[in-house]
Amino acid sequence: WADSFNSVTAISSMGNDRAVFFGSDQDDRFFGSLGTTWLRGSTFLNWASNFSNITVVMNQGGFDIGTFQDSEHDDVFIAENRAAILYSNNYFIYVTDLDRAFAISDDGGDDDAAIAPNEFEIFLSGGWI
After folding, report:
1. How many whole angstroms separate alpha carbon 6 and alpha carbon 40?
2. Which among 76, 95, 73 has a CA at the least distance from the CA of 86?
3. At residue 34, what are phi and psi to the nearest 5 degrees?
């Protein structure tokens, strides 16, 4: 557990490790992909490397934006009710309370996207099916 630091970096040994991020009351930015995840706000940057399970809770306010990057595997992106999930057979990323999400599919694999009625903006680019 790390609290009240300007910057935190956590590195996993690629086991079944989990990282949990919490947003601030400011406009936060999230990036998630296989092997690299970060959350930054105006006063902090939290970074996780090689975690297979990521949870991000952005329910403190501000205008929060998430960017999801596919891997070379067959990835799935799901968005519903201000939450988004990106996963494949070796990683899982779950983000709640987004205001905008970008999902990028350009690293290969057969990538699927499922978008349900949402309360936030979603932008897909690349080869999502």
Report:
1. 10
2. 76
3. -60, 115
